[in-house]
Structures are given as C-alpha cells and as structure tokens.
Amino acid sequence: MYYEEEGTGEPVILIAGIGANHRFWKGMVPLLKGYRVITLDNRGVGQTEYKGDIQIDILADDVIHLMDYLHIYKAHIVGWSMGSLVAQSLGLRYADRVQTLTLVSSYQFRPHRSAYFMYMMAKSAVDGQCTVDQVNILFNSFCFPESTFEAFARKGTIMPIPRHPEKPEELLKQMMSMDKFDTTDKTQNIKAPTLVVHGGMDIMVEPLKGRAIAKSIPDCRYIEIPGEGHTISPDLYVDALKKHLSDNKMGN
C-alpha cells in the first residue's frame, strides 16, 4: 500500500474517492498544520499493489492495516465520495479505532443515475469503445458546477484531465464495489462525532443524499456549501473540519 504522511500531532487519515489517488488531497494537506496527515492510494489507483478483490469493507480493512503498520491505534478519518463509504465502514466496524468522522460528498447508497452513467462509461473504456480521458471528461462534468467551467472559459482554457489516468479495469472494480454497499439502516449506529459536508450544487450526489445521511447519524453536524459541486475545494470547509477535530481531541 502506497501512502504519504506529513506533520506531527493527532493523526488524520484522508481517503479519496473513485479513480482518485493520494494526490487528490494535495490542497488539503498544507491546511492541516498541527496534525499528522496521512494520505494513501486505495486498491485500484496509484502505486498500491494488491491481490484479491476490491470491496468497500476490504478498503476499510486496508486502512486499519496501515494504521497498525504506523502504530496508530486511533485516528480522525476524512473520506470524500467513495472514500466516505470507506469511512462509514470504519465507523461502523472499527468504532474503537475512529476518533472522528468527516464525510464529504457522502451518501448511504450510490444514486442510481450516477451508477448508470458511471458504469456504462467505465465498461465502455474497458471494452475499448472510449478512452479513459473521455471517461474523466464526463466525470469532471458531473463533479464540478457551472461556475468552475465558466472560470476556465474566462481564461480561455478548459479544465485539465489527469496526466496519468488510472486503468479502466480498476476503475470498474472500484465502481462495482460501491454497488454492493448500502448503510441506509446502519448509519444510525455510528458513534464517532461526525461532520457531513456537501455541495449545494452537487449533481453527482444530490444534496438530499447528504442531508439524509447527516440526519441519520446521532448528533451529526451538517454543512452545505452553496454553489459547490461534488468536488469541493478544501479551503471552503477546512475551518469547519479543524473545529470538528479540535472539539473532539483525543483524551477529551
């Protein structure tokens, strides 16, 4: 498993979503000074090598194995999109190892519209009917709001796509792992202090999904950021995140 860590203090583990490796968090890491920030490549992306299956619970088990390797018993867990499913699995199955949860662009089960187009595009790339670049172009279209594309247009440019795209076969495996994961009747059992962050203009996972998961978790704090899509700039919620971590320090 490939991982990176920076800083010292209470450990914060950042878990990215489908097709995203540890570099997804490059904007967040510098904002969390005073913490030991750990980023990683899930199975199917980046430099992590694995044998066996990709399932959400297995990805959560991988995080626990990494914590054991780093001699970390308890950590603050932050997950985005698919990573928030991994975070939920950790909160439900390893409650004693989770100090806090932060679920960004989260949901209890994958929305059917998103599942439809994401599966068809990934399968088409696997079958050679389209390129991974084309898949990423469509993903960007669903992850960012109109304002983001407007800003690029004003500069006379377009939104870039990954220089080193992941393998379509691995994207499809990650995608299918989400189809088998549903915490609708389980999130009420999450005990860790939880913060849910959602974009008010998210069309990949509509805000009502974020509101639903926040409502289901006892004493959960919910923040909806107006005008933001599925991928939310870290600077827009890092203050809320740091307050969440500070209010729930280890040993309190």
Observed structural traits:
252 residues, alpha/beta, Rossmann fold, seven-stranded mixed sheet, 8 helices, globular
Care to give the gist of this entry?
Helices cover 37% and strands 16% of the residues. The chain has 252 residues and is α/β, with parallel strands linked by helices. It has two domains: 3-108 and 182-247, Rossmann fold (3-Layer(aba) Sandwich); 113-170, no CATH class.
Structural summary, described in words:
This protein is an alpha/beta fold and 252 residues long. The protein folds into two domains: 3-108 and 182-247, Rossmann fold, CATH 3.40.50.1820; 113-170, no CATH class. 37% of the residues lie in helices and 16% in strands. Strands 1-3-2-4-5-6-7 form a seven-stranded mixed sheet, with helices on both faces. The longest helix is centred in the middle third of the chain and has 15 residues, at 112-126. It starts with a strand and ends in a 5-residue tail after the last helix. The mean pLDDT is 96.
